[in-house]
Amino acid sequence: MSGIDKESLLSFETVLKTADTAVLAVASRHLKNIEVTVLKGVWQGKTYDQIAQECGYAPEYIKHDVGPKLWQLLSASFGEKVSKTSLIACLTQWSKQKNHAGDGAQTSINAAQPTSKKNILSVESPVGLVPLHSNLYVERPPIESRCYQEVMIPGALIRIKAPSQMGKTSLMVRVLNQARKQHTPDSDFQKIYTVALNLQRADSSVFSNLDRLLQWFCGSVARKLKRSHRVEDHWSEIFGSKSNCTTYFEDCLLSDLNGFLVLAIDQVDQVFSHPEIADDFFTLLRSWYEEAAYGESGNSLWQKLKLVLVHSTEVYIPLDINKSPFNVGLAIELPGFTPSQALDLAQRYCLDLSEDNLIDLMQLVSGHPYLLRQAFHHLAQQDLTLTQLLATAATDAGIYHNHLHCHLQTLQQYPQLVEPLTRVVQSSLPIEVEQFLAFKLHSMGLVKLVGNKVMPTCDLYRQYFSNRASSIDD
């Protein structure tokens, strides 16, 4: 298939629809964003290097990973060899055949879709963050666009808050990726460095005092940037921990950067549990943000630093409002999925749910992203029917048993949470719970805040913990 006249080519939108339909029929998924980017670039006659430069990825990744896998996928989907050089001819012919055949072509493609359970292609695990190039990430407008705009501002601070397993880290990695895409190769100063720190990975001894925490903090950032991290050589008892940390960032990290540093700190909640150091740590972050905001009257180095703070719960420790980083910058609170977003996710799993099916599922899990992913994963794998899923969801025989058991074990470790949760799940109305305990239950994702009161996050938790209220503390 060669010798295609340029004037005979169809629009990219037309051939993309054809390619996506074929892939969906055979591989039971849509084309991923990165695959669409490569497809479009090749369609426009660009080289792998040009595509990589425009989308902010390493050329090797496009050349040796995405590209070859994409041609294999298209070859399997169309039933004939598709390569980078034959792409235009193949897709043009297939698109025209599809248009001429009308519904018949669609029927032919769909007929190739596997129907037996053992032949259905496996989909990615519903546990953990949604991978960067996954087709299963559903945006919650305007959250992503606001974050992407904010992260481009010098000295920016973004705060992402939501209970456990709501998608905070998945959003965080996309904010970092968006920042990396803004790198302008012909401008040294516009280089973007990104560092992600997860405070859960720090040893408990790190939180024993402020000095220990800030030395770990400095050393971890330096290591991620592949810089020498002999922090002790730059630490002095005379000036104090916060001053030492600030000077280390200025002299050893920011001054040498020929661009911006986007620093994302995940699981910030770890510091909340140590009020003796929390006030100083958060005051320090606030001071850096303000230093950047001062512009010419302050130290311009701090405009190079952009912070992304990620946490699971409300700030329940007393912080001076004028020194806290939790009342400045862009605040993002991730909600559950709306019915239309849940339907979008179901379709990405190639599921055809009726309106009544979706209502029943949303009533059970209230749009909780992780619980929805679990449900759609098992339905797509044909492990069970929706009727079976709903009937067994709140039992030890259901698909959520591991998830529910983890919560049960946590409650057994923190018995002070048992009594308030029991009252919450047994009440038909939101009730008041002592603030610290309410925030703790909220961070676990078990309750949602309604003003100064709380109620179960979803009917699944109400059913499960109502049935086990008397045995939680056994």
TrEMBL record:
TM region(s), chain numbering: none
Domain vWA-MoxR associated protein N-terminal HTH: 11-93
Entries under InterPro entries matching the protein: HTH_VMAP-M9, P-loop_NTPase
Top-level taxon in the UniProt lineage: Bacteria
Name of the molecule in the record: vWA-MoxR associated protein N-terminal HTH domain-containing protein
Provenance organism: Petrachloros mirabilis ULC683
Top-level taxonomy: Bacteria, Bacillati, Cyanobacteriota, Cyanophyceae, Synechococcales
